[in-house]
Write a structure and sequence with these properties.
The chain is mainly alpha-helical and about 120 residues long. Helices cover about 45% and strands about 0% of the residues. α3 crosses α4. The chain starts with about 25 loop residues before the first helix and ends with a helix. The relative contact order is 0.14.
Length: about 120
């Protein structure tokens, strides 16, 4: 499967960088290792997609059909940030997707996440 991550905005990449052209430390860190090292359970196309997203400075859209595993890519990306002390906010359009994210996050990274048990029960 060919992997292509489409940028969120057109134009020169320099337009999207910090004014002093320094690379975001998070982007530099996550780009330094392969996605399969962060989450060895990713399917090959998921790891390739996440690596391509890293190479695009963590900007872009990963498009795939329903049920193909996009949520796991997102959870892995969120986990990378969380592990580095970055607060993560996940916004999804439906309560069903919110519940899916909670289930996957808890089952995938339960030892590494602080999870509000009351929020899950609600």
């Amino acid at each position: 499967m060919a992997v292509d991550v489409e940028p969120l905005a057109s134009g020169n990449r320099a337009e999207h960088m910090a004014p002093d052209n320094r690379r975001d430390p998070f982007v530099a860190t996550v780009s330094s290792c392969s996605s399969s090292e962060v989450n060895p359970y990713l399917w090959e196309w998921q790891a390739e997609s996440l690596d391509a997203w890293h190479q695009a400075d963590c900007r872009g859209v990963i498009e795939a059909v329903t049920g193909s595993g996009k949520t796991m890519i997102g959870i892995t990306a969120a986990f990378e940030a969380f592990r580095q002390g970055i607060k993560v906010l996940v916004l999804v359009p439906t309560a069903e997707l919110q519940a899916q994210w909670q289930r996957w996050a808890v089952s995938s990274f339960v030892d590494d996440l602080f999870v509000d048990q009351a929020a899950i029960a609600a």
